[in-house]
Amino acid sequence: MPFELHPAPTAEANGIGAVSVTNSHHFGIAGYYARMIVERGLIGLVASNSRAVSVVPTRAATRVFGTNPLAFAAPTRRNPPFLLDMSTSTVAGNKIKMYALKHKPLPPGWALDEKGQPIVDAALAREYITKRDRGGLTPIGGTPEMSSHKGYGLAMMVQILGSTLAGGSFHGLAESRGKQSGPDNIGHFFLAIDPQAFRPGGNFEDEVDEMIEFLHSAPTIDPSMPVLVAGDPELQSREQRSREGVPIPEVLIEKLRGIARRCGAPFLLG
After folding, report:
1. Residue 4 pLDDT level (bands cut at 50, 70, 90)
2. What is the span of the domain harbouring residue 248?
3. Per-residue pLDDT for 152 more than 60?
């Protein structure tokens, strides 16, 4: 059965619509749902907690939160919609995995050990996140000196709005009590707002366009690297991948080839 996002019709009828979901599982890319809302000409806000407990709060030695994604989208008329899609951790867990596959060192501040010291070895960071009791990913900001408390606060906000509101789990607390089995009970939250309920039709979209264009025209440090807004990098990447294909590290290719061989399935990636 296809996923149906019901806040949009409600917002079109009443100016605002909200839906919370409980007893769910990983829902993929938060921005996908925000885009579904913005394609109806509405402002969209999406929040979800995460099952994997991988993020260490500011001043803590143990992991408490998931990467708890947050997405926000606003409609435009001349430009692609503004689309912010982010985890509330400094990086997503899969980015650590990709660095490990490529044997690349991590930038300091992405992951910490049990003493709060930066981990730059990607494979070791993966071990901390998946196997050890302490250490893990940092909230946005990375360190207390770089305001990690702000990312920590956003992670808590997403937990409350995306899961607690609907009766979903707080997985850090559940694991501390030894409850690691049973349904994931992940929660999601979707909000849709019709700009026309607040302003005459088109005025909001025109001003969002003006902001985007003003930012795009801002003087740059490096002329070869123009100022972007949320959604631009993803759009550029999508266009490039559509032209050139999706690059896959050789280590991952070998892992996929091995899976296909063990399953007796044809390997179609080359």
Report:
1. low
2. 7-263
3. yes
Measure CA 261 to chain center: 33
Query: Is 79 within the bounds of a domain?
Result: yes
Q: Indicate the pTM of the whole model.
A: 0.88
Q: Answer for the pair 57, 47: CB distance below 8 angstroms, yes or no.
A: no
**Domain annotation covers residue 268:** no
Exposed, middle or buried, 194 (CB in 10 Å: 0-12/13-18/19+)?
buried
Say if 1 falls within a structural domain: no
What is the percent of the chain with per-residue pLDDT over 90, rounded to a whole number?
79
CATH number of the domain encompassing residue 131: 3.30.1370.60
Tell me whether residue 190 is in a domain. Answer: yes
**215/233 Cα distance (integer angstroms):** 14
Alpha helix segments (H runs only) across the chain? 7-14, 30-38, 93-102, 122-130, 148-162, 171-176, 203-216, 232-244, 250-263
How many structural domains comprise the chain? 1
Sign of CA dihedral 83, 89, 95, 97: negative
Pairwise CA distance, residues 20 & 46, whole Å? 10
**Look-up of token digits 């979903």:** 168
